[in-house]
Design a protein that fits this description.
- The chain is mainly α.
- It folds into 2 domains: about 80 residues; about 55 residues, no CATH class.
- The strands form 2 sheets. The chain has a two-stranded antiparallel sheet.
- α2 runs antiparallel to α3 and α3 runs antiparallel to α4.
Length: about 180
């Protein structure tokens, strides 16, 4: 009985069916191997700029069968080149928008020009004017850049407030 089974196995491996199954299996394994190598090449072209590195990635995907693509997966760049370019364009566009910065009134949110002293919509005071040349001054400036006049305090000093209060008290007492 054992001799008959050995004879049956021998007949199977010597048959044309085994030859077809073996050849198809080798063919599909080779096609899958070449397909993974091609995938590594295509993916490397989308992720790597340097042509030499793309070629090395393709060789890595081809030479150690089935292990090369796995190694490539560990060391490939995380982003596509197109995504990197789009992100850089978005950053540049945001920087341009921030540099142009449309100014708005803090009260009514109407768009105002950088040279406006007051908001034309709600008449909120936006900037202080230079006492000598009338140019608009930024809040932190200590001197007018147009005429070199020192900028006084934007809020009235305590002495001015007290003298103003005394003057109004005198006027009200005299009446």
């Amino acid at each position: 009985m054992i001799g008959a089974q050995e004879n049956g196995l021998s007949d199977f491996f010597d048959s044309g069916l085994w030859l077809v199954v073996r050849n198809l299996s080798v063919f599909f394994v080779a096609v899958f191997w070449l397909a993974t190598a091609y995938w590594v090449y295509k993916d490397a072209r989308r992720r790597i700029e340097d042509p030499w590195l793309v070629a090395m990635a393709a060789v890595l995907g081809l030479i150690p069968p089935f292990v090369g693509p796995i190694i490539y997966l560990f060391f490939r760049p995380p982003e596509y080149l197109q995504d990197v370019r789009e992100r850089e364009l978005e950053i540049r566009a945001m920087e341009d928008r921030l540099s142009r910065r449309n100014l708005h009134c803090p009260v009514c949110r109407a768009e105002v020009d950088a040279g406006f002293l007051v908001c034309p919509v709600c008449t909120t005071r936006l900037k202080q004017a230079c006492v000598r040349c009338g140019a608009p001054l930024e809040a932190l400036w200590q001197m007018c850049p147009h005429c070199a006049t020192p900028v006084g305090p934007t809020l009235p000093a305590i002495d001015d407030t007290l003298s103003g209060l005394e003057a109004t008290r005198r006027v009200s007492e005299s009446q």
